[in-house]
Amino acid sequence: MNVQSPNDLNAFWMPFTANRQFKTEPRMFVAADGMYYTTSDGRQVLDGTAGLWCCNAGHKRPKIVEAVQAQVAEMDYAPAFQMGHPKAFELANKLVNMAPEGMEHVFYTNSGSESVETALKIALAYHRAKGDGARSRLVGRERGYHGVNFGGISVGGIVNNRRFFGSLLTGVDHLPHTHLPEQNKFVRGQPEHGAHLADDLERIVALHGAETIAAVIVEPMAGSTGVLLPPKGYLERLREITRKHGILLIFDEVITGFGRLGSSFAAEHFGVTPDIMVTAKGLTNGVIPMGAVMCTAEIHDAFMNGPEHVIELFHGYTYSGNPIAAAAGIATLDTYREEGLFERAAELAPYWEDMLHGLKGLPHVIDIRNMGLIGAIELEPIAGSPTQRAFSAFLAAYDKGLLIRTTGDIIAMSPPLIIEKDEIDRIGETLKDVLTSID
């Protein structure tokens, strides 16, 4: 396939992109199938990142394609305010059935960022509905990524996502991140050291009073900051402290949900159930924008008071539960189940781990981290030019037919769950070539 690139790239202001560099040397995808993208000059590029952590079942999957085509021909849109359509309810039931016990209700959004905003608003409104409106403080974590809306960057902890946008939300504190490279370098899976970092929540409670804190939000495994894994016992300790003080615990599972760790959700993988779960990405395999926030019956039922004709929660989006997105979601979850993709991820995880840790000792590599079908290779930064070395690796990998993602000086990978062992081998060999060729 040889598809001509657009002749004018000026109008599109690209997100999270070095726009000037890209538009000097464009990298255009024009088709995708299975594990591979096709570029505008006809090359095949192995997808080492499942798009943006979202195409967990791979690309152009027949069941999902057919479901979307059928739905858009039957009904393209239906309002979700005071009206409904069957597929939104069918998908919600499927989500509840696969979620950890206790997650009983689903609120639809369009993205991970919107799911985070929704979860934060539900948490605040829940306490007020209970007559506990003094609980208005939120706690996030350093290096956390919770999307790009104001609530998300306020509880998030990635400096460049925050520094340009003013004072953000007030009443927000941050736990320390869990990255302890001196103690946990080159660890396979969960690190041994760092559970004590959860105890910093007790300091925040002592500072402000538990009665002022509404919720704590964390990624069970922090993805976009460079794959930071929870130390053994850390999530359990967070759950214990939040429960003791009546604080809601929110898991941002936008990346970890839908098979990435070899289970439905990280909550299941780690055996820790929060009060609210934030999802998106793999929910529709990246085909149509959609997110979903799941919560307990206790939270949902706190709103179900007063006259029955009155709106209980003044929140929602034009595209909440969109029919085409719901159809894509149903077909995606069916594809995961019918092909056993979560189990497949768990089976491939040790092979994936061995490939990654086989890169130890290569030039510039200062740490390797992994869990499920996620991996990170941390590179030593070039003095005075942070991110340049990883960006060079990104460009070199693309030229060699491999799509990776970089964040800071960290290479992050999360391939579709349909990956084969020979493709894992190819990723390893390509990365060896890249890391030995860049400065």
From TrEMBL:
<keyword id="KW-0032">Aminotransferase</keyword>
<dbReference type="InterPro" id="IPR005814">
    <property type="entry name" value="Aminotrans_3"/>
</dbReference>
<comment type="similarity">
    <text>Belongs to the class-III pyridoxal-phosphate-dependent aminotransferase family.</text>
</comment>
<protein>
    <submittedName>
        <fullName>Omega-amino acid--pyruvate aminotransferase</fullName>
        <ecNumber>2.6.1.18</ecNumber>
    </submittedName>
</protein>
<dbReference type="InterPro" id="IPR015422">
    <property type="entry name" value="PyrdxlP-dep_Trfase_small"/>
</dbReference>
<keyword id="KW-0808">Transferase</keyword>
<dbReference type="InterPro" id="IPR049704">
    <property type="entry name" value="Aminotrans_3_PPA_site"/>
</dbReference>
<dbReference type="GO" id="GO:0016223">
    <property type="term" value="F:beta-alanine:pyruvate transaminase activity"/>
</dbReference>
<keyword id="KW-0670">Pyruvate</keyword>
<dbReference type="InterPro" id="IPR015421">
    <property type="entry name" value="PyrdxlP-dep_Trfase_major"/>
</dbReference>
<dbReference type="GO" id="GO:0004015">
    <property type="term" value="F:adenosylmethionine-8-amino-7-oxononanoate transaminase activity"/>
</dbReference>
<dbReference type="GO" id="GO:0009102">
    <property type="term" value="P:biotin biosynthetic process"/>
</dbReference>
<keyword id="KW-0663">Pyridoxal phosphate</keyword>
<dbReference type="GO" id="GO:0030170">
    <property type="term" value="F:pyridoxal phosphate binding"/>
</dbReference>
<dbReference type="Pfam" id="PF00202">
    <property type="entry name" value="Aminotran_3"/>
</dbReference>
<dbReference type="InterPro" id="IPR015424">
    <property type="entry name" value="PyrdxlP-dep_Trfase"/>
</dbReference>
